[in-house]
Write a structure and sequence with these properties.
- This protein is an alpha+beta fold.
- It has helices at residues 27-35, 66-69; strands at 2-7, 16-22, 43-48, 53-57, 60-64, 72-78.
- It has one domain (2-78): Ferrous iron transport protein A (FeoA) (SH3 type barrels), CATH 2.30.30.
- It is 16% helix and 46% strand.
- The chain has a 6-stranded antiparallel sheet with strand order 1-6-2-3-4-5.
- A hairpin with a 2-residue loop joins strand 4 (53-57) and strand 5.
């Protein structure tokens, strides 16, 4: 299992990762991500990538656009 850092919008469907960092200074975006449970250390799994990005975060599925997905840096887990 190899970990590598990448924006979550580069993950493929069904790929998993652990959130490493949220790379934005936009307080509204940070607030939105935190309210959805997307925080550093959180595991996420890609459910779909089009037309929007849908992530499984814990027991919840959240949908974000490409702009928001691009600020979520994850350590991708390659199986």
């Amino acid at each position: 299992m190899i970990n590598n850092l990448m924006p979550s919008d580069q993950l493929k469907s069904r790929q998993e990762g652990v959130v490493a960092e949220l790379t934005t200074n936009n307080k509204n975006t940070l607030r939105k991500l935190m309210s959805m449970g997307i925080l550093p250390g959180t595991s996420l799994k890609v459910i779909q990538t089009f037309p929007s990005y849908v992530f499984q975060v814990g027991y919840t599925q959240v949908a974000v656009d490409k702009e928001i997905a691009s600020v979520i840096l994850v350590n991708a887990i390659n199986h």
